[in-house]
Amino acid sequence: MAIKENGKNAAVHVHEHTGNAHELKNLMPDEDKLYDLAELFKCFGDSTRIRILFALFENEMCVCDLADSLNMTQSAVSHQLKILKQMKLITNRREGKSIIYMLADSHVSSIIAQGIEHILE
Amino acid sequence: MAIKENGKNAAVHVHEHTGNAHELKNLMPDEDKLYDLAELFKCFGDSTRIRILFALFENEMCVCDLADSLNMTQSAVSHQLKILKQMKLITNRREGKSIIYMLADSHVSSIIAQGIEHILE
DNA sequence: GCAACATATGAGCATCTGTTCATATGTTCA
DNA sequence: TGAACATATGAACAGATGCTCATATGTTGC
Questions:
Q1: Diameter over CA atoms, chain A
Q2: Which of A19, A95, A98, B28 is the Cys-Cys partner for A62 at CB 3.0 to 4.6 Å?
Q3: Which pTM was predicted?
Q4: Minimal Cβ distance to B115: which of A41, A64, A98
């Protein structure tokens, strides 16, 4: 058994129980993509943001209405909206004094729908 | 304009810019479901766990091989596998001294595929 | 311009999260 | 049974995260 000396206790030995340890690297997306992907799902990984998305799934709404119906602070909503917008899950348009937010594309509902399917099993 | 006195600066006034603030409550899943959904997506919201899932997407693997190919500590992998298993994204079986992990169902790849579609735009 | 409304933003704080380290549990084989 | 291998787990710590509070920016109508 070969010995690797990288100082990590997890990799002091090299063996292949399933013989698959090295092939997957070709399949694995590069680090940047993996990070982006994780960042994307992180958006869905908070019940506040999920609630915002559910609200916008039904109707476009201004910040004020979102805060009101979700029983949240305007500031808290605004902070989360910024995150959702950075990830391009939502867009907005100004309408007078208000800014109306809406879902950006169909991926949002697709992803959530898949998630719901999973937890309903 | 009605005044609510709940002490939150976000909801001191009640108005309906879009007129949709109260209808969505019928559509919104209950708190438990929302929490479960967020917990599920939280699993995908970490690049380590995403990498584990990608690895298992290709081949079932033991903890040791995962740690080796992902260049992680055995302990770190094991901790994350526990989380993924709790959320029923993966299952395992014992095979001699090793424990082989694999994806639990097709939802995992569906969800990740949707995520990839989104970030590739 | 100014007052009222609507939203955005930065700092501070408490909580959550992922890793490491040490160690416990479980399996195989001699 | 004991030694080596394989995995799991708990405590502790550092970094990330979401909220609040105060305040800044931007819009409308007088």
A1: 71
A2: A98
A3: 0.83
A4: A41
Sequence ranges of the domains in chain A: 30-120
- B8 pLDDT exceeds 60? no
The CATH architecture that domain B30-120 belongs to is Orthogonal Bundle (1.10)
Q: Assess whether pLDDT exceeds 60 at residue A46.
A: yes
pLDDT score of B20 more than 90: no
Strand order, beta sheet including A61-62: A61-62, A98-103, A90-95
Separation CA B65–CA B82 (nearest Å): 16
What is the residue type of B105? D
Decide if A72 and B10 are in contact by the 8 Å CB cutoff: yes
Over the stretch B32-91, which tens digit does the pLDDT of each residue have?
Answer: 899 999 999 999 999 999 999 999 999 999 999 999 999 999 999 999 999 999 999 999
Percentage, residues of chain B above pLDDT 70: 78
Nearest to B20 among A44, A61, A72 (CB): A61
Q: What phi and psi values does residue A88 have, to the nearest 5 degrees?
A: 60, 35
Measured between beta carbons, the chain A residues lying within 8 angstroms of B116 are 29, 33, 37
Chain CA centroid to CA A30, Å: 18
Calpha distance A109→A53 (Å, rounded): 9
pLDDT reading at A79 higher than 60: yes
Residue with tokens 């790849």: B109
